[in-house]
Amino acid sequence: MSEAVTLRCNVNGSDVDREVDARLLLVEFVRDVLGLKATRVGCHTGDCGACTLLLDGAVVKSCLVLALSAEERAVVTIEGSNNLAEIQAAFVAENGFQCGYCTTGMILTAAELLRKSPHPSDMEIRHALVGNLCRCTGYDAIIAAIHRAAERRGAVGYAVGSRQ
Amino acid sequence: MIGARFRFTRPETLEEALDLLAGAGGLGRVIGGGSVLVPALVAGQDAPALVVDIGRLGLGSVREEDSDVVIGAAATYATLLASEVVRRRLPLLAAMLREVTGGPGLWNLATPGGAACYANPASDVPGCLVALGAAFRLASRRGERLVAAENFFRGAFETERSPDEMLTALVLPAPEPGRHAYYKLKHAASSWPIVTASCLSIDGRIRLCLGAAAPVPLLLDWPTPSTTEAVAAMAEQVQAAIATEWTDELAGPGYRRAVVPAVAARAIRAVLEERTS
Ligand SMILES: Cc1cc2nc3c(=O)[nH]c(=O)nc-3n(C[C@H](O)[C@H](O)[C@H](O)COP(=O)(O)OP(=O)(O)OC[C@H]3O[C@@H](n4cnc5c(N)ncnc54)[C@H](O)[C@@H]3O)c2cc1C
Ligand code: FES
Ligand code: FES
């Protein structure tokens, strides 16, 4: 049955080559094997969004992904993301977090939204955050933070990507 | 970590994938987005011997083939939401896709094909696919067959697909789009559907498919009504057509049956009044 299998992928710009058990989830691979602890686990059912990271450039809930499905693909966690400083500053300015557990998922999801829609409406922001739960803030401050980040960016576009 | 051991493969050819599934008996599982299968493995609700990831099989695209639109089984909600072909030729499907919850972290992973194979009655996907007259392309080492959506959904969490068969594509007839509406009742923005209604105006007739009301989608069809009384009568007929009501943690006995006429009437009126959702 399942023995350790080799997983080759790219994480935050570096090639990774590890023996893993087929039963390992992608979120467990980044946290427990690679020690990248900013990606969290809140539910294991796909509901909370705390485990959000980028797989081939798109945000995914990494508790729904088997680690071996990342073979030959690019994984970017918030530790390896650049161009997030303005969003992070906006979360601080608007008190967009309290305990911070949901924050990495919120920020990566907000970054993908702003990449696709640089000046989102309230409804667009709420729609984009429908899969990210926060037990502390009541969401208003998070929505305000994303508006603030959009305003600060002004006409300057940006991308989410891995630090090379 | 998942408890029970299994073998994982991510083959590069369909032939290899089908051989593996054939060899696994009833213990092979295909993984699309994993949004249903992975939590089930974590919770120990499913314990397959083999998991076959279809991510490398090139099944993730949307193509126009003559009068049909062919959607690969690995195409995600996000791929379809971004597809110009889907927007232009399948506006009812596009309206349904916009209503799926879960956020971009789910839309970038999960597939309508996976939702169809899961066949949860309380899903957006089955009812919409039945309304659109979709067909399911199933492949196995025994060959390929095309199953009409009406025959594909056999019961709650039960489909016509055999364990050795892989869904490779959804085939959707796409005539000139007419008026359409997708309406769903749910308790909160992030909730799964209580009842869905997919409604189309085709050749002077109204086609309505209700999802989540019964274990399988319920399809009805009438000449276009001209009075509000006629719409009310249609809505009553929909209610009468529910042989077995679907109940789950979202809505207990009697709830879905009670709300069905209102949901049906809203969808029909939206189509008649040319409001598209
Ligand atoms: C947070 C959240 C929100 C959700 N919101 C909604 C919603 O609003 N509406 C809704 O309808 N659903 C919703 N879902 C349910 C569900 O995840 C999706 O409907 C999804 O599309 C399932 O697809 P998947 O590709 O992830 O399935 P998977 O988990 O990959 O597969 C599901 C089942 O189908 C089988 N399967 C998958 N692909 C194939 C194939 N090609 N051939 C043969 N068998 C196959 C698998 O073996 C498994 O049994 C939600 C789920 C989550 C976690
Ligand atoms: S831990 Fe993945 S969505 Fe909650
Ligand atoms: S800040 Fe605590 S969960 Fe969001």
From TrEMBL, chain A:
Pfam families, per database record: Fer2, Fer2_2
Organism taxonomic ancestry: Bacteria, Pseudomonadati, Pseudomonadota, Alphaproteobacteria, Acetobacterales
InterPro entries in alphabetical order: 2Fe-2S-bd, 2Fe-2S-bd_dom_sf, 2Fe-2S_ferredoxin-like_sf, 2Fe-2S_ferredoxin-type, 2Fe2S_fd_BS, Beta-grasp_dom_sf, Diverse_Oxidoreductases
Top-level taxon: Bacteria
PANTHER family, alphabetized: OXIDOREDUCTASE WITH IRON-SULFUR SUBUNIT (PTHR44379), XANTHINE DEHYDROGENASE IRON-SULFUR-BINDING SUBUNIT XDHC-RELATED (PTHR44379:SF8)
Protein name as catalogued: (2Fe-2S)-binding protein
Keyword match Oxidoreductase: yes
Domain 2Fe-2S ferredoxin-type: 3-81
Record PROSITE patterns: 2FE2S_FER_1, 2FE2S_FER_2
Gene Ontology molecular function: 2 iron, 2 sulfur cluster binding; metal ion binding; oxidoreductase activity
Keyword Oxidoreductase included in the entry's annotation: yes
Keyword vocabulary terms for this entry: 2Fe-2S, Iron, Iron-sulfur, Metal-binding, Oxidoreductase
Automatic annotation (TrEMBL), chain B:
Keyword Flavoprotein: yes
GO molecular function: FAD binding; oxidoreductase activity
InterPro entries for the chain: CO_DH_flav_C, CO_DH_flav_C_dom_sf, Diverse_Substr_Oxidored, FAD-bd_PCMH, FAD-bd_PCMH-like_sf, FAD-bd_PCMH_sub1, FAD-bd_PCMH_sub2, Mopterin_DH_FAD-bd
SUPFAM superfamilies: CO dehydrogenase flavoprotein C-terminal domain-like (SSF55447), FAD-binding/transporter-associated domain-like (SSF56176)
PROSITE patterns (alphabetical): FAD_PCMH
Source species, domain of life: Bacteria
Any Pfam family matching the protein: FAD_binding_5
Gene3D superfamilies the UniProt entry points to: 3.30.465.10, CO dehydrogenase flavoprotein, C-terminal domain (3.30.390.50), Uridine Diphospho-n-acetylenolpyruvylglucosamine Reductase, domain 2 (3.30.43.10)
Keywords in alphabetical order: FAD, Flavoprotein, Oxidoreductase
Domain FAD-binding PCMH-type positions: 1-177
Name used for this protein in its record: FAD binding domain-containing protein
Biological source species: Roseomonas indoligenes
Lineage per the UniProt record: Bacteria, Pseudomonadati, Pseudomonadota, Alphaproteobacteria, Acetobacterales
